[in-house]
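Dear colleagues,

For the upcoming journal club I promised to circulate an example of a predicted protein-ligand complex. I picked one with S-adenosyl-L-homocysteine because it came up in last month's discussion. The inputs are reproduced below in full, followed by the predicted structure.
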Amino acid sequence: MPDRPNLKNYSLERLRERFIGEGLPAYRADQVAGWIYQRGVEDFTQMSNLDLSLREWLEANWQSRCLEIDRVDRSTDGTLKAILFAADGAQIESVLIPETNRTTLCVSTQVGCAMACTFCATGALGFTRNLTTAEIIEQVCRMREILDAPRKITNIVFMGMGEPLLNLAAVSESIAILVHPKAFAMAPRRLTVSTVGVLPKIEELLAIAPINLAVSLHATTDAVRDQLVPLNRRYPLDALLGLLRQLDDVNHRRPVFFEYTLIEGINDSLEDAKRLPALLRGIPSKLNLIPMNPHPESAYRPPSEAVIDAFLRELASAGMTVTLRRSRGDDIGAACGQLALRRTGAAAA
Ligand code: SAH
């Protein structure tokens, strides 16, 4: 069968243009989007308010589904990790994190990752390809189907496999679909995109919509960051933080969420904690500390509780807004940095 385009690759604006180009009224595009995104109906034959001829045209020229769930693991803490496969057999992972007042979905943006961060299991996989917009959006569609009613996805973080800013076209189009009132109608505030710091793309990302920016920091010196995040050699700390300091889209209403993975003996010293406030001065921000989630691809370990506590106390006493992120789903290899398509068993004790 010739490759028919997937409807989910198109923002509403572009879908309307395509429909108009075919001589169809724009509202038909909105109706189709309503079925797919709001009602979760992907089968054209069930779109009962469309004429039969339109349904036939859709059936002949478009597709509406491209990802299937291969398997779902459920953590003892309620976190759900799914392995999904695309039409070409590529596999990715998505993670659902139900909490008391919200349910967060963590989506992947690439198959594997080219960034090769030395503590990240996805980094050890290497890069295969970018995901399409439809493949990013469809993680939302498939994952909401496995959520226990009446739970709904309230937040989406682009923190799964891959570097979102190296697939910005698809990420941008996905955000457009997530926030569009006729599609998922999510508030931009409920979306967060995380990057290791692909400098030339950050402004473009922030211009898409008032979403949250997360930046994977992980170190207070270039020597250590070079070792953990190889991209730092191209865009060192000064350049990264200097840019964030200048951006109008970064402000107290829209702070940067810095992620700092604490690794024993590497970036967990009191000197590191003391350097952080000065390093981040002038950047409205919040800091998330994530104790290293161990996995077989890395020898790095999390620090002891005492060291984590001391680090946290030092930052708090310097007046920083800092939270310790509890690991979720690490018994099923679903925690930050553990996404690497292990099919059997737990990641690490
Ligand atoms: N490439 C983007 C998006 C992935 S976000 C980025 O790196 O920001 C995934 C987050 O988990 C990043 O902050 C990453 O640094 C962190 N992470 C990776 N491996 C980890 C590990 N083993 N333990 C804890 N956090 C990890």
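Two points we might discuss: Residues 1 and 94 are 29 Å apart (CA to CA). The first helix runs from residue 12 to 21.

See you all on Thursday,
B. R.
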